[in-house]
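Limitations

Structures in this collection are predictions, not experimental determinations, and the ligand pose is part of the prediction. Treat each record accordingly. The example that follows, with zinc ion as the small molecule, is included so readers can see exactly what is and is not provided: the inputs are given verbatim, and the output is the predicted complex.
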Amino acid sequence: MQVCLKCVLNEHFLGIRFDENGICNFCSSADSTDKQRSIRSKHEERFKQLVQEHKGRGSYDCLAAYSGGKDSTYTLHLLMERYDLRILTYSYDNWFQSDTAKRNIRAVLRNANVDHLTVTPSFESIKSIVLTSLSDDIYPPKALTRASSICTSCISLVRFAGFRIAIDQDIPFLVFGMSPGQAPMATAVVKTNPRMIKTMQAALLRPLTEKLGDTVRPFFLEQRHFDKAESFPYSINPLAFAEYNEEVIYKTIAEYGWRKPDDTDANSTNCLLNALANQVHLDKYGFNPYAYEIAELVRIGCMAREEGLARLGEPFPADQIEEVKKKLGIV
Ligand SMILES: [Zn+2]
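Predicted complex:
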């Protein structure tokens, strides 16, 4: 099987082409390191300026999605230390948070001393969302190059639940802790508006409601939200413009009491569903749903290629997959 000699993407990755040197089109079309650095600092400057303009508008300056994973924990640290914001965090409990993730959430919230909300859909809702995402082709393959279908469903719920809360509470910044490879640079600082979010929501909500009826409705925006154009937040992804160094990240978040989990697979620090979601995705499409993220981290010099390949080559924990299947009633 052909694998790009610069990153870690293989020949099954959607839209991939290799040149005569064995380098993929994603690598050859990537911006130079200098250009990336300059784009990053522009985004950072813009965010700093927006913080000055919008800070102090209401009870909270920002709503931060907090999963208890390493990236969102580090993002929380940046929001506090670098931008001095009043933060409301929220987490999404899909009934498959690892025990370590739950412990980490409690420890970090306590040490960071921030307010928190938990969004917990009913177990039956989650079960039907997960089973539908597994068995039906509810998303086009193009939508699944950076995440499995289960992840895509959960991330949608997290994202739109965040928009609901931010709009309802008039919070100017909605912050996500996606790593540089999970989210493109273009998502670093985005002023959202009803039209944009309505289009995004329709693309995700339509396939889910076709299968599940109104089960997922309460987590998405309603017309009353779209009518409040002035309350649509800036969507911010600080890790797209902050420096991303896993060693620094682990060291920093340890100071908040965060501990590295030993109960999830190699690519997730918080969700037990991940192993099953990744296995199904790999079997179906021929590439690990984390491949794009890891390829990007390798490309921008945040991870050695050998380490990226090793991470992608790790087998998914079979016992975890079995346990999750049992909980979902899949025999
Ligand atoms: Zn490549």
